Amino acid sequence: MSGQGWGRRAWEVCQSCWEGLWDFVFPPRCWLCQQYTGTDWGLCEACQKQLRDLSDRACWRCGRTVGPYADLTRGCDRCRTEHYPFRSVKRLGRYEGVLRDAVLQIKHAAYEGLAVALGRFLGYLLTHTEVPFDVIVPVPLHWWRQWRRGYNQAEALAEGIGEITGKRVLSKVLLRIRPTSSQTWQSPTERQPNIKGAFRAQFRGHSVPRSVLLVDDVMTTGSTLTEAARTLRNAGVREIHVAILARTE
Ligand SMILES: [Zn+2]
Ligand SMILES: [Zn+2]
After folding, report:
1. pTM of structure
2. Which residues are paired to 201 by β-bridges?
């Protein structure tokens, strides 16, 4: 072995010793239950199982929870006659229990690590589906809200998905140009005009991807994701798939 080879080998041994020592002093903890976890995922086996158990049967087209015998060939009975600018919705589970707690936690910048860990988990689920996408685009926050929150949780989720799927995250191509008031207290009819024209797509320096995975934390009526997807479609993206942590219905 050359001198350079020995040097590199010594550095690798030294680095793995250091990482082992670091894990010994600060063992990685699960973001959800704070127990020690043997994995780099940020979630222990028990919490991963709890999350997997939440993924009950859902409509592939709108992400809503459906009964075990629902015919989903062309979507569920709630969405069959609807026209969406996105092709499919993949979700982790219904907005309840541990998933609801997690969605509320990742609204705070201190839980960015949890958002990335949940993104990795979602990415892992996506690798077991047929959903095709070239790049990942998180739903943006208006700069003012992002500044106040300290980060965009959808972007952290997208980073986690990117780590597992190996797909690039484009976090600057979709912008929220107008602040929108919190939508949760509004009726579905009030939500539409509030979000209309709230986004702008700009693929400066990037070629327009053929298919996009659009990522957000939670989907309520779907008006935000619909408007974001429509904006990307108008910019030339042919196919959009949605990935979310939780669906309220
Ligand atoms: Zn755990
Ligand atoms: Zn449906």
Report:
1. 0.84
2. 174
Other CB atoms within 10 A of residue 19 CB? 10
What CATH code is carried by the domain that includes residue 85? Answer: 3.40.50
- As a whole-number percent, the residues of the chain with pLDDT over 70 amount to 84
pLDDT at 171 over 80: yes
95 lies in some domain? yes
Q: Is residue 205 part of a domain?
A: yes
Output the CA 50–ligand 1 centroid distance in Å: 9
Residue 27 is predicted with a pLDDT of: 62
Number of domains in the chain: 1
Residue 35 lies in a domain: no
Ligand nearest to the CA of 33: 1
Residue-wise pLDDT for 111-126, tens only, equals 999 999 999 999 999 9
Per-residue confidence at 194, pLDDT binned at 50, 70, 90?
confident
Confidence at 185, pLDDT banded by 50, 70, 90: very low
Domain that residue 225 falls in: 56-247
Counting ligands in written order, the one closest to the CA of 118 is 1
Q: Distance, CA 61 to ligand 1 centroid (Å)?
A: 31
Residue 32 Cα, ligand 1 centroid: separation in angstroms? Answer: 5
Q: In which element (H, E) is residue 102 found?
A: helix 97-105
Kindly list the protein residues that place their beta carbon closer than 5 angstroms to ligand 2, a single-atom ion. 59, 61-62, 75-76, 79
Nearest ligand to the C-alpha atom of residue 38: 1
Interacting residues of 214 by C-beta distance below 8 A, sequence separation 6+: 86, 137, 138, 139, 225, 228, 229, 232, 240, 241, 242, 243
Query: 72 CA to middle of ligand 2, Å?
Result: 8
